[in-house]
Amino acid sequence: MRTDTGEIIHLEDYQPTDFVLERVDLTFELDPLETKVEARLIFHRREGVAADRPLVLDGDELKMTGLLLDQEPIAAEDYTETGETLTIRGLPDSAPFEITVTTELSPQTNTKLMGLYRTNDVYCTQCEAEGFRRITFFPDRPDVLAVYTVNIIADKATVPLLLSNGNFLGGAGMGDGRHFAAWFDPHPKPSYLFALVAGDLGVVEDSFTTLSGREVVLKIYVEHGKEPRAAYAMDALKRSMRWDEEVFGREYDLDIFMIVAVSDFNMGAMENKGLNVFNDKYVLADPETATDQDYANIEAIIAHEYFHNWTGNRITCRDWFQLCLKEGLTVYRDHQFSADQRSRAVKRIAEVRHLKAEQFPEDGGPLAHPVRPTRYREINNFYTTTVYEKGSEVTGMIATLLGPDLFKAGMDLYFDRHDGQAVTIEDFIRCFEEASGRDLTQFSLWYHQAGTPLVSASGTYDASRQTFTLQLEQTVPPTPGQSTKQPVHIPLRFALISEDGTITEASSVSGAEVTGDVLHLVERSQSVTFEGIASRPVVSLNRGFSAPINLHFEKSSADRAQIARFETDLFARWQALNDMALDALVAATASVRAGTPVVCDQALIDALMATVSDDALEPAFRAQALALPSESDIAREIGRDNDPDAIFAARREIMTAIATAGRETFAGLFETMRSTEAFSPDAASAGRRALRNSALAYLVLAENAPTRAVEAFSAADNMTDLSQALTILVHRFPDTPEATAALESFQTRFADNALVLDKWFTVQATIPGAATLERVETLMAHPLFNGLNPNRVRALVGTFAFSNPTGFNRADGKGYRFLARQILDIDPRNPQLAARILTSMRSWRSLESGRAEHARAALSEIAAGAKLSPDVSDIVERTLK
Ligand code: 0A1
Ligand code: ZN
């Protein structure tokens, strides 16, 4: 075990290493239980470092079997080894020297999936953030960049494929049944980007010619027999490569680019130089087994990892506090890519839904931290939606503030100036300041202050003066470790919509800088006056979600409907509908709790029906309009004393009211959106399926019978329709013979496809209601469930905790106690997975007191667990604080 459970790392303590690493030569002799690793590391002492300073290398659960200095054994008194560190004294003052460390590893029993491990008999590595130290003693930090040569030796018959980073140097048989391969990566890289994959895999090959005419070999490795399911990933890869050349001017830089899909992986994927390793969920797809969402995820993640080659690999992070430097920027880039490949507005709506569902609760709860944190105990716990998604939003705001041309100039400067370096957020920001001449000091607070800013807005129209005044206030709420906050620079895109629906331009504006449709809110309180406004306007504020804020702007339903009808920014139209729906849902929840009848705002129904019936709007957008705020969205809006059962009941009633009022329309859409052509995963076809399936969900509610869902399930010829029909049927009519039969047929049909069975586990784990806990417990004993595989655990336990508000938050607290048992069970074998699932408890304080008490008790039970990992103890302690 790593022993650093209590140690907090502080940004302000950053120091460069005493020794400079020049070269790394690694030799692996692979064996499931006794892999031998020889690491030859060439160092020299950094100029100015005192001659008596020792070399300190990082390790984690390592067994060292040899140690040499310039090929000579090192005397026992000259080094100290603890398993976590190796300290070597008496090293040369200025001349380069070579340290040779040999270690012995057991990949087969490495269940943490960090370092070198085995997945389905394939050897595979995961080194970000601190996995390389589980392979050998090493200066395992991102600012140590070196050139690597890697030799891999293994049994030829069982391990025919030997891969590592960079370009292939050569390989041959060794005459003893073994063979070797050598790889050389000419690009200096930090250890977290190292990768090795070895085993028996199938491959899909293609090639790509870069803008400058270089030919790059592309290979995607998957389990034998799954090659046809990698075609879409390959297509997405080629589109990503072209897009990065065209939009960011970035070309690929090796002779070969490889992707390997593995079935045991803690995260989505990993950007190792030239050898990306993917969770197979984000590679494999065909119409029979993948939903439209799966296709979209594959496209986005393939792009994300590929884009890291420039934002992350060529330019990397100085230390892990700078994680958003590569992650926020790369998410921004993959969002832009997906927006260009699909519908920009629909993509933006999905991003904002995700941000509000995942990042806002994090930012508003006990785990809140700045995009660029200044302290951590366990870095694995900082791969968060704040670092990724809020980090991307902050990058997007820089683009909004500067405009496209200056943003591009800043990016070009960043690539030019910092290529080959390990840098900080300050370096990044400086490039935009220099390119634009704009002072971004206040803007930088977005990186340093946690918490979602709240902007309160109100407007007054003066007919006699023809002026409109917008009063804006901003506050950033206190968060752990940050009790007071400064006002931030908030770029608010806006439009003033006049009575006839046109967008009004003011003759002049005072009280704020306005550039184009961007209003710059920089003070705590600002009064902005628009002159020359002929009639009372309706303000559409934060168009396109230009800033990741909570906005309180009281408006009548009629005003919201005006925006929903006339805005030219499609995102803002959706936002207006969603706000109307949220108002209605919050009011309905209050009615349920008060025991008074729920009444649904007719203006909401009218606005929704007008939108969904408007054939000029793309179907994917109309489907987004029909998807009401989730139960968690409603809970977040209410903020405190939440009763998940009341929220569920209220939402069901509002949906039923909409379903009943729109029954004819939904029946019509269910027919007209039917596809007559062969399946295609493109965005337009996916949009039609999305609209048809939401129509189905409402129809089933209106009809209050399972028949239509059963028919849709039988008729489905693709996984999107099949899984939607199954979900509607099972969630609405659980335990009916129809639901049971459908679940059974699904299981039989896909029994040999673990990724599809994950959907089967998830559908059941998310059935609303208290009874689901018993179902989940039964499913954990199912022969097809495997508690060692992270995808299975997330599909069943993870979705139950994260996505089943009524089931998980049972009033008797049994859901929380179940989670506590699971966390304590998973933690010893896979701490990262346990810690991540535990973050599902982050909003416990906003529950009503009975549930909150049960939640606290369950958290305390975890905290009291013997030998908790640093990952879990960090999360549980912060959650309880
Ligand atoms: N850098 C990867 C995410 C990642 C982080 C940690 C991991 O360790 C298990 C794996 C992957 C990305 O952003 O895609
Ligand atoms: Zn990433």
From TrEMBL:
Gene3D superfamilies: 2.60.40.1840, 3.30.2010.30, Neutral Protease Domain 2 (1.10.390.10), Peptidase M1, alanyl aminopeptidase, C-terminal domain (1.25.50.10), tricorn interacting facor f3 domain (2.60.40.1730). Residues 558-881 form the Peptidase M1 alanyl aminopeptidase C-terminal domain. Residues 451-553 form the Peptidase M1 alanyl aminopeptidase Ig-like fold domain. It holds the Pfam family DUF3458_C. Residues 232-443 form the Peptidase M1 membrane alanine aminopeptidase domain. Its cofactor is Zn(2+). Keywords: Aminopeptidase, Hydrolase, Metal-binding, Metalloprotease, Protease, Zinc. Its EC number is 3.4.11.2. One of its GO terms (biological process) is proteolysis. GO terms for molecular function: alanyl aminopeptidase activity; metallopeptidase activity; zinc ion binding. It catalyses: Release of an N-terminal amino acid, Xaa-|-Yaa- from a peptide, amide or arylamide. Xaa is preferably Ala, but may be most amino acids including Pro (slow action). When a terminal hydrophobic residue is followed by a prolyl residue, the two may be released as an intact Xaa-Pro dipeptide. Residues 25-193 form the Aminopeptidase N-like N-terminal domain. Belongs to the peptidase M1 family. This is Aminopeptidase N. The lineage of its organism: Bacteria, Pseudomonadati, Pseudomonadota, Alphaproteobacteria, Hyphomicrobiales.
